[in-house]
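User: Could you walk me through two proteins back to back? I'd like the raw sequence and the structure tokens for each, with a short line separating them so I can tell where one ends and the next begins.

Assistant: Of course. Protein one, sequence then structure:
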Amino acid sequence: MESERIQKKLNHIDYEILKIINERLELVLRSKTLEVSPQENNILARLKTFCESHKLLSEIFTGEILRTIMSESHRLQQERMRLIGFQGEHGAFGEVAARNYDQDLIPVPCPQFSDVFEGVERGEFELGIVPVQNSLGGAVNQVNELLLETELRVVGAIKLRINHCLLAHPDTDYRGIASVFSHPQALSQCQDFLKKHNLEPRPYYDTAGAARMLAKENPHMAAAIASRLCAQLYNLEIIKENIEDHEANITRFLILAKEEDREGMNKCSIIFSTPHKAGALFAVLKIFADDEVNLTRIESFPNRKDPGQYVFFLDFQIPDIDGDAGVLLEKVKSTTVMFKYLGCYREDM
């Protein structure tokens, strides 16, 4: 039994080593540099002192490990991989959506939505992906506020059906699970399942973060609600899939970039505000009605910079996929007091 316990601990350490190496490779790719950095040279120069403090690590062995990692870092940089930033830990639904959008992209986690926007603006990421609305939870207000301020363009969109899984540590007996960690929204979306099985919901900052914590800390009699991808990333077992209360749980994500890509466009997104008078919004909507343009989203949000005023987020389909929405947009712009063009792009309907 002691040898089995040690083996399990070794397996866990191996996973942690690989995750840390992956994190290092992501940071190197974000730096966009090809030369060996002074930091790497300093690390190699400090090897002797480090190894003297850790008796089991020889200077030759440690040097080989670090040089191999650095070599792989530079190889990946030379491949000019395209990065896409998403909010949350690895395994978040933003990463699932990014992988579905383009499997060749390298998803990179960001702590906050603002970090995704800033990463694209600074050129660390070629693209960013952010959720704008959920069929059950409504609009993601923080993202919409950031869209109001950014100069980035929307270059694509994707809808993802949210499938929640109950995940457990491999050492956990699922019959003894008593509490479940996850983001409050995920817990709310699975509340019927939790009540049915008498499981205590335990709010956590992120669904994928809860899965990561579960894998690392293995709290007693606990599980997590997260994506199927989290089970693969954190070596967790899937106890049950599709535990959400409603099948129609869909989140729409926007893809952001510095430059617009209008190839195959079939949808446009804009933000505007109208004069504070009767019929002002109707006048804008009439422009679309007269041109027989289908609106797919219209939502209003209070303007934090101008209390008492509202801004409207509007998406519409381009009737002719090869057509130009410019004339229509000019009509709208002339009717509004504030107009912001987010982009024309392709979204699979």
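----
Protein two, same layout:
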Amino acid sequence: MTDAPILSERVGHTQIITLNRPEAMNAITSQMLTDLNTALKAADDAPQVRAVVITGAGRAFCSGLDLKQASAGEGIAGTLGSRQGTSHYSTREICTVTLQRMDTPVIAAINGAAAGYGLDLALGCDMRLISDRAKLLPGFAKMGVIPESGGTWYLPRLLGWAKACEISMLGDPMSAEQALEYGLVNRVIPEPQLMETALAWCDKISANAPLAIAEMKRLFRHGLTQDFESHSHHVLMSVLNLFKSNDFSEAVTAYMEKREPDFKGN
């Protein structure tokens, strides 16, 4: 296996992006942020990619910020703490912002502990599958920090105000089953079957009309900040555009011919 901190591999229509510092439980360095951002953008720009999986190498999903770098004032902490670093890492270059802007569906395959940045990264994915051996570790307050990469935005929306406060302010670890009970993950999967299940979900997504999937995600995203009437107008415009697509024609033809559609994304 390569020593690159971020691995990106295409399997069919699915791009698998792997955090690859298993010896450090995939703790995030500034180089990893840059490479992850590049991999996410490349996947979203590739027409042949219809779904993305983010996972971790080894026994962890991501243990968060590299604390050795942070304590030395290096890496992310040093970069973001300087004026030059703040300019360099604009919102356009932050991985979790890129993740939120993507039109390609993203599944987090949480294979092990997800703490700090790793938890925020998972929350930024559209769907989350978690190994029955994994845990979510929202211990921000115990470390004297906050969920800096999306958690303060996602948690109240996913869980409501009171439960978001409970999770972030108490900082207690969550088992996979607790995460499912709270609604933070879609499914708990036996550890040996995690990637198999994630790829199967991606295959199902990829078999559907890519234009419709991308438009759904865009409308979900915009709907978070729109009133119902404005949102309904945008939905109608989107539907009218999709009616003109070859994918819609293929769907109708396949239905009439009693076969599975073969979508091309145009």
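Confidence is low (pLDDT under 50) at residues 82-89.

Let me know if you want the two compared in more detail.
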